[in-house]
Write a structure and sequence with these properties.
Elements (H helix, E strand, L loop, with lengths): L1 E3 H16 L14 H32 L3 E10 L6 E10 L12 E6 L4 H14 L3 E4 L8 E10 L2 E14 L7 H7 L9 E5 L13 E14 L6 H6 L7 H31 L10 H21 L16 H20 L6 H12 L5 H9 L2 H23 L1 E6 L2 H6 L2
Parallel strand pairs: 4-10
Antiparallel strand pairs: 1-3, 2-3, 5-9, 6-7, 6-9, 8-9
Helix pairs in contact: 1-2, 3-6, 6-11, 7-8, 9-10, 9-11
């Protein structure tokens, strides 16, 4: 490809003259700065801009003429064999692969199901009651599930250590938030007891001075409490938003919420199974530029996540370049294949699908209409919904023709997956 020098010079002149109309310099009124000074100050910059624009347009025109899709940024180099009066360039770049989609009927995909019955409603109501259960002091010995308030002092070889003492400290036994030896030393203790016990710290403990060592703790049990869930009655139903206190209405609401949650989780599980199986439909070479960009993006997300967790990423060693390469390859391959399916099978999101998805999001909100307006008032937010709908269209298309293996999940298994 080439650009004509006379066109470059003419465009540079036009831009300099336009700039001269408003440029201010000491000793000159706006618009009265001599052109020679304008050229000295801005000529090189404007020439670079004009040349860059011209090369970019020439590249775009060549791409359109040959009907190729560029993957990543091209490398553009000057060549010396251009015709007189022209500047010649070569562009080196990768292109998107041609993807031949195979027969979807050859895929085997797991589709997940889960029943919601009265037992699941009962379990959920028990959880809701426990979540609203007040702590009540008891005189019996502490057991798992109890909240124990203690004062404690820890020593290592008879010497106190940083962070080894506290007053009014609360721990719920059995949750595993404290070291096993610490919880074990408190089990069976009652208010007023002063148990002392050794606590072994694991070798990988965060504080280096304690890692792999055994400390001694002296404690005083201030209080032992247990949770006493409220009764499943009219008052409890009203506390959960059932205006008339009807237990039947409460159960119906809980069931509806469970069915909605279960349906969402099942869709997510099935979608994951489809996306895992999809790469079996086609084999193609991945553009290294796309893989590199995706790996870099994954690395930036990892660093942002570490920073959000309070880590000083500036003091951390750099993440090795190949850390996310395999994950990036998987994501790029799947993204290209999904895009090809959407294009080739006309799986784009339709307006009624977008509306239905937004309304589904809004079901769990107190004011559904407000959330619906929130999405439809902003194109960026609606694009997020569109991506979800498109993915579901791909999933539905695969499920309509692939070999399906139905797998029933227990309610607890599905909900524990997070």
């Amino acid at each position: 490809m080439a650009v004509t020098l006379s066109d470059i010079e003419r465009e540079v002149g036009d831009r300099l003259r336009k700039l001269a109309r408003t440029t201010k310099m000491p000793g000159f009124r706006p618009g009265k700065v001599p052109m020679r000074m304008i050229e000295q100050s801005y000529g090189a910059q404007i020439q670079s801009e004009v040349l860059g624009d011209a090369v970019s347009k020439a590249f775009s025109d060549a791409i359109a003429e040959h009907g190729v899709r560029v993957a990543g940024q091209p490398q553009i180099d000057r060549r010396e064999d251009a015709a007189e009066g022209e500047l010649g360039f070569t562009a080196t770049f990768e292109v998107y692969p041609e993807i031949a989609v195979g027969d979807v009927a050859t895929l085997e995909v797991e589709r997940f199901t889960c029943a919601v019955g009265e037992d699941e409603v009962d379990k959920t109501l028990d959880i809701l009651r426990k979540q609203r259960a007040p702590w009540v002091a008891v005189t019996r010995p502490a057991a798992d599930g109890d909240r124990v308030t203690i004062d404690f002092k820890g020593t290592l070889d008879g010497t106190p250590f940083e962070g080894g003492a506290a007053e009014g400290f609360q721990v719920v036994l059995g949750q595993g938030r404290m070291l096993p030896d610490f919880e074990a030393g408190l089990r069976g203790a009652s208010a007023g007891d002063t148990p002392g016990f050794p606590v072994g710290f694991p070798a990988d403990y965060g504080a280096a001075e304690l890692a792999g060592k055994t400390a001694h703790f002296d404690t005083k049990v201030v209080q032992v409490e247990e949770q006493q869930p409220p009764a499943l009655d009219e008052e409890f139903a009203k506390a959960l938003g059932v205006a008339d206190g009807s237990i039947e209405k409460l159960r119906a609401d809980v069931r509806a919420n469970l069915e909605r949650e279960v349906a969402q989780r099942l869709r997510a599980r099935t979608k994951s199974a489809v996306m895992l199986a999809l790469p079996g439909l086609a084999s193609f070479e991945l553009p290294s530029a796309l893989v590199g960009a995706e790996a870099e993006s994954l690395g930036e997300r990892a660093r942002a996540d570490l920073k959000q967790r309070g880590m000083d990423i500036d003091k951390m060693p750099p993440i090795p370049p190949d850390t996310f390469k395999e994950q990036a390859q998987t994501r790029v391959r799947l993204g290209l294949l999904v895009a090809e399916l959407v294009r080739g099978k006309s799986l784009q999101a339709k307006p009624d699908q977008l509306r239905k998805q937004v309304e589904e999001f809004a079901q769990s909100y107190e004011n559904p209409g407000e959330l619906i307006r929130y999405y439809f008032s902003d194109r960026t937010r609606l694009a997020e919904v569109e991506a979800i709908v498109v993915e579901q269209n791909v999933v539905d298309w695969v499920l309509s023709a692939a070999r399906i293996v139905d797998r029933a999940l227990a309610f607890d298994e599905l909900m524990a997956a997070g």
